[in-house]
Amino acid sequence: MHQASTISISELASVLYCPVKYYLDLSVPYEVSNTVHICKHIAFAEKAIDPEELWEELLFIHPEIEQMCKEQFMDYLMIYRRGFQQPWTERDLYVHSKKWDISGIIDKFDASTSQITLIRGAKAPQIGVYRADRLRAFAYSICLQEMVEQKIQLLCVIEYVASGVIRTLDFTPRDRRLFLETIKLARRIRGGYVPTRPSQAPCKHCRHEKSCTSLSGRRLSDIFRL
Protein backbone atom coordinates (compact mmCIF):
# COMPACT_ATOMS: atom_id res chain seq x y z
CA MET A 1 0.00 0.00 0.00
CA HIS A 2 1.29 3.47 -0.86
CA GLN A 3 1.58 5.67 2.23
CA ALA A 4 0.01 9.12 2.09
CA SER A 5 2.51 11.99 2.04
CA THR A 6 3.02 15.35 0.38
CA ILE A 7 1.64 15.19 -3.14
CA SER A 8 3.47 16.94 -5.94
CA ILE A 9 1.49 19.18 -8.24
CA SER A 10 2.70 17.09 -11.17
CA GLU A 11 1.03 14.09 -9.52
CA LEU A 12 -2.30 15.92 -9.47
CA ALA A 13 -2.00 16.45 -13.21
CA SER A 14 -1.23 12.74 -13.63
CA VAL A 15 -4.33 11.76 -11.66
CA LEU A 16 -6.43 13.98 -13.90
CA TYR A 17 -4.83 12.50 -17.03
CA CYS A 18 -5.66 8.94 -15.95
CA PRO A 19 -6.06 7.81 -12.33
CA VAL A 20 -5.33 4.16 -13.16
CA LYS A 21 -2.07 5.05 -14.91
CA TYR A 22 -1.17 7.23 -11.92
CA TYR A 23 -1.71 4.29 -9.58
CA LEU A 24 0.37 1.91 -11.70
CA ASP A 25 3.12 4.52 -12.09
CA LEU A 26 3.50 5.12 -8.33
CA SER A 27 6.21 2.47 -8.08
CA VAL A 28 8.02 3.66 -11.21
CA PRO A 29 10.69 6.42 -10.95
CA TYR A 30 9.53 9.63 -12.63
CA GLU A 31 11.50 10.58 -15.74
CA VAL A 32 11.39 13.96 -17.45
CA SER A 33 11.16 13.63 -21.23
CA ASN A 34 13.68 15.09 -23.64
CA THR A 35 10.94 17.33 -25.03
CA VAL A 36 10.40 18.93 -21.62
CA HIS A 37 14.15 19.50 -21.20
CA ILE A 38 14.31 21.06 -24.66
CA CYS A 39 11.33 23.36 -24.09
CA LYS A 40 12.52 24.60 -20.72
CA HIS A 41 16.03 25.28 -22.01
CA ILE A 42 14.62 27.30 -24.90
CA ALA A 43 12.20 29.25 -22.72
CA PHE A 44 14.95 30.36 -20.33
CA ALA A 45 17.54 31.28 -22.98
CA GLU A 46 18.45 34.79 -24.03
CA LYS A 47 17.15 35.48 -27.52
CA ALA A 48 20.48 36.82 -28.67
CA ILE A 49 22.36 33.57 -28.00
CA ASP A 50 23.49 31.56 -31.04
CA PRO A 51 21.35 28.43 -31.65
CA GLU A 52 24.40 26.16 -31.91
CA GLU A 53 25.77 27.48 -28.63
CA LEU A 54 22.39 26.99 -27.00
CA TRP A 55 22.27 23.38 -28.26
CA GLU A 56 25.71 22.68 -26.84
CA GLU A 57 24.62 24.12 -23.49
CA LEU A 58 21.63 21.77 -23.48
CA LEU A 59 23.87 18.75 -24.12
CA PHE A 60 26.19 19.84 -21.32
CA ILE A 61 23.30 20.12 -18.84
CA HIS A 62 21.51 16.98 -20.08
CA PRO A 63 24.14 14.66 -21.61
CA GLU A 64 21.53 11.90 -21.96
CA ILE A 65 19.88 13.82 -24.82
CA GLU A 66 20.86 12.31 -28.17
CA GLN A 67 21.99 14.13 -31.32
CA MET A 68 18.82 12.97 -33.09
CA CYS A 69 16.91 15.50 -30.97
CA LYS A 70 18.76 18.43 -32.52
CA GLU A 71 16.27 18.91 -35.36
CA GLN A 72 13.40 19.04 -32.87
CA PHE A 73 15.36 21.53 -30.77
CA MET A 74 16.06 23.83 -33.71
CA ASP A 75 12.44 23.68 -34.92
CA TYR A 76 11.07 24.57 -31.49
CA LEU A 77 13.62 27.34 -31.05
CA MET A 78 12.67 28.96 -34.35
CA ILE A 79 8.96 28.79 -33.50
CA TYR A 80 9.45 30.11 -29.97
CA ARG A 81 11.58 33.06 -31.03
CA ARG A 82 8.79 34.38 -33.20
CA GLY A 83 6.76 35.11 -30.08
CA PHE A 84 7.25 37.05 -26.86
CA GLN A 85 9.31 35.43 -24.12
CA GLN A 86 7.72 35.75 -20.70
CA PRO A 87 9.89 37.60 -18.17
CA TRP A 88 10.93 36.30 -14.76
CA THR A 89 12.82 37.35 -11.65
CA GLU A 90 13.02 33.80 -10.27
CA ARG A 91 13.14 30.44 -12.01
CA ASP A 92 12.43 26.95 -10.64
CA LEU A 93 10.74 28.45 -7.59
CA TYR A 94 9.79 25.80 -5.03
CA VAL A 95 6.35 26.36 -3.48
CA HIS A 96 4.27 24.36 -1.03
CA SER A 97 1.03 24.45 0.91
CA LYS A 98 0.80 23.13 4.45
CA LYS A 99 -2.98 23.31 4.32
CA TRP A 100 -3.28 21.02 1.30
CA ASP A 101 0.03 19.18 1.75
CA ILE A 102 1.09 19.73 -1.86
CA SER A 103 4.26 21.11 -3.40
CA GLY A 104 5.80 21.88 -6.75
CA ILE A 105 8.21 24.04 -8.73
CA ILE A 106 7.05 27.10 -10.66
CA ASP A 107 9.04 27.46 -13.88
CA LYS A 108 9.04 31.27 -13.89
CA PHE A 109 7.90 33.86 -11.39
CA ASP A 110 8.03 37.60 -12.01
CA ALA A 111 7.89 39.40 -8.66
CA SER A 112 7.37 42.78 -10.32
CA THR A 113 4.02 41.69 -11.79
CA SER A 114 3.22 38.65 -9.58
CA GLN A 115 3.10 36.52 -12.72
CA ILE A 116 3.42 32.73 -12.67
CA THR A 117 4.55 31.16 -15.94
CA LEU A 118 4.39 27.45 -16.71
CA ILE A 119 6.50 26.02 -19.51
CA ARG A 120 4.85 23.11 -21.29
CA GLY A 121 6.27 20.61 -23.76
CA ALA A 122 2.99 19.77 -25.48
CA LYS A 123 1.72 21.71 -28.47
CA ALA A 124 -1.01 24.20 -27.62
CA PRO A 125 -4.67 23.26 -27.99
CA GLN A 126 -6.60 25.14 -30.68
CA ILE A 127 -8.24 27.28 -28.02
CA GLY A 128 -7.76 27.77 -24.30
CA VAL A 129 -5.58 25.64 -22.05
CA TYR A 130 -5.50 21.92 -21.30
CA ARG A 131 -7.38 20.94 -18.14
CA ALA A 132 -4.23 19.50 -16.57
CA ASP A 133 -2.41 22.79 -17.14
CA ARG A 134 -5.26 24.74 -15.55
CA LEU A 135 -5.05 22.39 -12.57
CA ARG A 136 -1.28 22.85 -12.28
CA ALA A 137 -1.53 26.63 -12.46
CA PHE A 138 -4.32 26.76 -9.88
CA ALA A 139 -2.38 24.53 -7.48
CA TYR A 140 0.76 26.65 -7.86
CA SER A 141 -1.24 29.80 -7.16
CA ILE A 142 -2.70 28.27 -3.98
CA CYS A 143 0.78 27.41 -2.72
CA LEU A 144 2.23 30.83 -3.51
CA GLN A 145 -0.69 32.68 -1.91
CA GLU A 146 -0.21 30.66 1.28
CA MET A 147 3.55 31.20 1.36
CA VAL A 148 3.40 34.99 1.02
CA GLU A 149 0.73 35.05 3.75
CA GLN A 150 -1.28 37.74 2.02
CA LYS A 151 -3.81 37.89 -0.76
CA ILE A 152 -2.15 39.02 -3.96
CA GLN A 153 -3.51 39.19 -7.48
CA LEU A 154 -1.54 36.56 -9.37
CA LEU A 155 -1.30 36.42 -13.15
CA CYS A 156 -0.97 32.95 -14.64
CA VAL A 157 0.47 32.26 -18.08
CA ILE A 158 1.19 29.05 -19.98
CA GLU A 159 4.02 29.00 -22.52
CA TYR A 160 3.47 26.28 -25.13
CA VAL A 161 7.01 26.41 -26.48
CA ALA A 162 6.50 23.93 -29.34
CA SER A 163 3.73 26.13 -30.75
CA GLY A 164 5.19 29.52 -29.84
CA VAL A 165 1.87 30.26 -28.11
CA ILE A 166 1.15 32.03 -24.82
CA ARG A 167 -2.18 31.56 -23.02
CA THR A 168 -3.36 33.47 -19.96
CA LEU A 169 -5.62 32.05 -17.27
CA ASP A 170 -8.50 33.33 -15.16
CA PHE A 171 -9.59 30.86 -12.51
CA THR A 172 -13.24 29.97 -12.00
CA PRO A 173 -15.25 27.91 -9.48
CA ARG A 174 -14.88 25.01 -11.91
CA ASP A 175 -11.11 25.09 -11.38
CA ARG A 176 -11.55 25.04 -7.61
CA ARG A 177 -13.97 22.10 -7.84
CA LEU A 178 -11.60 20.19 -10.11
CA PHE A 179 -8.74 20.77 -7.67
CA LEU A 180 -10.76 19.43 -4.73
CA GLU A 181 -11.94 16.36 -6.63
CA THR A 182 -8.46 15.55 -7.91
CA ILE A 183 -6.62 15.93 -4.62
CA LYS A 184 -9.21 13.74 -2.85
CA LEU A 185 -8.81 11.03 -5.47
CA ALA A 186 -5.01 11.26 -5.31
CA ARG A 187 -5.09 10.68 -1.55
CA ARG A 188 -7.44 7.72 -1.92
CA ILE A 189 -5.10 6.15 -4.47
CA ARG A 190 -2.12 6.81 -2.20
CA GLY A 191 -4.07 5.00 0.52
CA GLY A 192 -4.42 1.86 -1.60
CA TYR A 193 -7.60 2.39 -3.60
CA VAL A 194 -7.39 1.18 -7.19
CA PRO A 195 -9.44 3.62 -9.29
CA THR A 196 -11.82 2.92 -12.12
CA ARG A 197 -10.53 3.54 -15.62
CA PRO A 198 -12.23 6.63 -17.13
CA SER A 199 -14.58 6.04 -20.04
CA GLN A 200 -12.36 8.21 -22.25
CA ALA A 201 -9.03 7.06 -20.88
CA PRO A 202 -6.02 7.87 -23.11
CA CYS A 203 -5.11 4.19 -23.57
CA LYS A 204 -3.37 4.48 -26.94
CA HIS A 205 0.35 3.72 -26.56
CA CYS A 206 -0.03 3.34 -22.77
CA ARG A 207 2.29 0.69 -21.38
CA HIS A 208 -0.37 -0.28 -18.83
CA GLU A 209 -3.21 -0.84 -21.31
CA LYS A 210 -3.48 -4.61 -20.65
CA SER A 211 -2.78 -4.69 -16.93
CA CYS A 212 -5.14 -1.86 -15.97
CA THR A 213 -8.14 -3.72 -17.42
CA SER A 214 -7.85 -6.41 -14.74
CA LEU A 215 -7.11 -4.00 -11.87
CA SER A 216 -9.56 -1.18 -12.49
CA GLY A 217 -12.15 -0.55 -9.80
CA ARG A 218 -10.75 -2.95 -7.18
CA ARG A 219 -8.88 -2.48 -3.92
CA LEU A 220 -5.47 -3.92 -3.14
CA SER A 221 -7.02 -6.28 -0.58
CA ASP A 222 -9.16 -7.79 -3.36
CA ILE A 223 -6.17 -8.21 -5.66
CA PHE A 224 -4.06 -9.92 -3.02
CA ARG A 225 -6.76 -12.61 -2.55
CA LEU A 226 -6.44 -13.75 -6.16
Brief summary:
With 226 residues, the chain is an alpha/beta fold.
Keywords:
alpha/beta, 16% strand, 6 strands
Give a structural overview.
The chain has a domain at 7-28 and 86-219. The protein has nine helices and six strands, in the order βαααααβββαββααα. The protein has helices at residues 9-17, 19-25, 34-44, 51-61, 70-80, 131-148, 173-190, 209-215, 220-225, and strands at residues 7-8, 90-97, 102-110, 115-120, 155-160, 165-169. Strand 5 and strand 6 form a beta hairpin.
Lay out the secondary structure.
Layout: E1 7-8, H1 9-17, H2 19-25, H3 34-44, H4 51-61, H5 70-80, E2 90-97, E3 102-110, E4 115-120, H6 131-148, E5 155-160, E6 165-169, H7 173-190, H8 209-215, H9 220-225
Parallel strand pairs: 1-3, 4-5
Antiparallel strand pairs: 2-3, 3-4, 5-6
Helix pairs in contact: 1-2, 1-6, 1-7, 3-5, 6-7
| Mean of pLDDT | 89
Question: What is the helix fraction of residues, given as a range?
Answer: 40-55%
Major sheet: size, sense and barrel closure? 6 strands, mixed
**Could you give the distance between the termini?**
16 Å
Tell me the total number of β-strands.
6
Looking at the structure, what is the overall shape?
A: globular
Strand content: 15-25%
Are there runs of 5+ residues with pLDDT below 50, and where? 219-226
Individual helix count: 9
Series of secondary-structure elements, N-terminal to C-terminal: EHHHHHEEEHEEHHH
Structural class: alpha/beta
The value of Rg in angstroms is 19 Å
